[in-house]
Specification:
By secondary structure, this protein is an all-alpha fold. Helix content is 77%, strand content 0%.
């Protein structure tokens, strides 16, 4: 019984670890794209947020349907 419980916990830990890694990778990739297309590599986090706030309403209002969350 303990062995099954251990394997279940180990499996859940592995799955959550993999999900965290995938999430971190996605954030890094998106950040790299942001820096590339907005030439934002010299901006601080706060400056980047301000820049994104300027364009957020426009982008969200004009986002093609294929990019919208259903």
């Amino acid at each position: 019984m303990e062995r099954e419980d251990f394997k279940l916990r180990q499996s859940k830990y592995y799955e959550s670890r993999q999900a965290r890694k995938a999430h971190s990778r996605r954030l890094i990739q998106k950040g790299a794209l942001l820096e590339k297309y907005f030439q934002a590599d010299n901006l601080s986090v706060e400056q980047t947020e301000d820049l994104l706030k300027i364009f957020a309403n426009y982008v969200n209002a004009h986002k093609p349907n294929k990019f919208k969350n259903d």
